[in-house]
Amino acid sequence: MVKLTINGRDIKADEGTTILYAARENNIYIPTLCSNEAVAPYGACRICLVEIKTARGRERLVTSCIYLVEEGLNVQTDTEKIRKIRRMLLELLLARCPDSEVVQDLTKKAGLEKTRFVEQTGNNKCILCANCARTCEEVVGVAAISLAKRGVEREMTTPFSEDFSEACIGCGSCSYSCPTGAISMEDKNRTRVIKWPHNTMEFKMKKCSVCGQYWAPEKQIEYIAKTSGTPLSDYDACPDCRE
Amino acid sequence: MAKLKSPGELEALRSSILKKRDPDKPCITVCNGTGCQAYGSKNIAAAFQEEVKRQNLAAKVDVKTIGCPGFCERGTLVVIKPKDIFYQRVRVKDVPEILSETIGKGNVINRLLYTDRTTNVKVTQEGEVPFYKRQMRLIIGNNGLIDPTSIDDYLAIGGYTALAKALKMTPEQIIDEVKKSGLRGRGGAGFPTGSKWETTRKAIGETKYVICNADEGDPGAFMDRSLVEGNPHSILEGMIIGAYAIGSHEGYIYIRNEYPMAVRHMRIAIEQAEACGLLGENILGSGFSFTIKIKRGGGAFVCGESTALMASLEGRVGEPRAKYIHTSEQGLWGKPSNLNNVETWANVPLIINKGADWYSRIGTEGSKGTKIFALVGNISNTGLVEVPMGTTLKEIVFDIGGGIPKGRKFKAVQTGGPSGGMIPESLLDLSVDFDELTRAGSMMGSGGMIVMDEKTCMVDMARYYTTFLEGESCGKCIPCREGLRQMKYILDGITEGRGKEGDIELLEELSATLIDASLCALGSTAPNPVMSTIRHFRNEYEAHIKEKKCPAGVCTFEAVKVK
Questions:
Q1: pTM (2 decimals)?
Q2: Domain B159-360 belongs to what architecture?
Q3: For tag attachment on chain B, is the N or C end more exposed, with fewer CB atoms within 10 Å?
């Protein structure tokens, strides 16, 4: 166990945990957009910046989603400096994704009504945190989507920006991991519809042989059967009806 | 060539090379650097070879193509050794005359000599040219002495003696020597090289990597290119010594593919060093083994950042990551990795040969040794300048650089590449080292120095560099990607006549956020051009915004006039 203080509170955390998770464990709120327990730390949104002072007296700003707890660390999560930086980051994000409710909400919480910057159109609600692509690659192991291009041209897209991603199994993890609702997923009986910022994909659902419910995309079931080495017939019935 | 099995065999080889050479035999050296090649130096070298054959002079003179000695402005450069007769702006038509007059009769051709601008006197010897005379060319100077594709040439000027010496020292002794020398990383950040080596040496792990960063991406900077092209063995020697000190057996040189000659020369150098037993298994019979591979970069500016470079080396997208865990502990493929810049590696043999005491006498309190600057822009003597740390900007720009051409006035000099700051005339007495430049709101960077005259609009320059950085931002983190996008919008607006009250303050606010919140140094240094121009040339911003006037007459405000 490592002993540290966050906002003056003495806290104990397991070695190897990030400041962000140590704070969460102790009900200390640090806003963040791109952090997700399921994938490796990335540090893109910078909203979770905190001020630290190390045991050796070094003071600096770090992203709490990456920086690991250490003995004697003194963390401040809500100083004037941090609030200022967060406000500016959110103001930039609001210009990028004016339609995102999540960004609007965070911006309001930070005390901002509107952005002074040029608003962009056509970005959907995507902040390019790559949670979707990272989950798809690191958790699902499929890498059906990724980020393409560089800098301001950067976008989340399918291979070669084609309408259809051959590799996609329709699991919808991208939608679950998206912090801003830029990717949506809807099951309409026989069809699952996943909407990405640049296109829409549809997947045929499998019908449960017992209850008749459409319970998962066929491609996903094939993928699970293949990666787990189990016969496809195991998946005729949905999990609820399986013996 | 048989592999050398001991330092003694290396010395024997060196003696046999030197014995075959007559130091008094004239040698015509033709600069084959990329700059001079643009002037047609390849044809000139070929013409010399042909003409030597035609006039039957092979017994009387040698012809050698060399790397860039630095005075690019006056290319193609030809120096005739051993008298060091310096001919500039040489063209193919001058070749027969040089051979018949200078080599044949010993006459100097006046027309090809350099004229000192201040005294109007012709200068005969290379060392007497004011551009060179005021420099201290410890590193780049060797470019003029050797054919970069010849290991014999490098051995003839004492090459690999530092390696032989280092292999007799303990790794700790080497690290101590480098620490004592005060050498700081020439890639820009100025981190103490010896400490970096020590951390990597002490890091836990069997496999450790040594990397040379030759991904020189700053517009207008070409010192690393010239070193790799002109003296690749010096970099290899530095890397082998570093690897031995660190305990690494695998090294990589990351060169951008836009530097084809650098890649070619380095490849030849590696093959030669391997053939001689200076690289590979059991180097000079010491039991120490080390290999070096070249990796070519795709030319993304951000890949010069160490973590992005390592990602690219691994075959992944070149994006930086947070460096809370240093690359010296977890770098390439998660292993302890020591990355240094080309020029840093090239300094290492010098330190080992001459000692830390000698080296640390050069330079300032906090910055030791010399630094090579690429002097470009509105400057009379474009080229590479190597001076001791602590030389003033004035000396570099006026005494060495020859001042501003066309009788114009000096306005600013930008140091440190696209994310460096612009330094105004009032600070020309600043002595150039890592700390002084940072204090002035700029940085050393890799050593670019772009001089601007009075006809330069500083707001337009800030816009230009911000546009460059916006295009080169990897786009991973929000402050850099979105912040630079908005900064560019604002600067576009100001230079096009759409500037409004509050723009300067908003730029300042954005800058502060980029500095504090960016993931890597590209983002955190990107506001430098904007911040430094606001700091030193605020009146120009105000003229653009309030009066819709560009004091330098660069911005035309077309968009406003049309309305």
A1: 0.93
A2: 3-Layer(aba) Sandwich (3.40)
A3: C
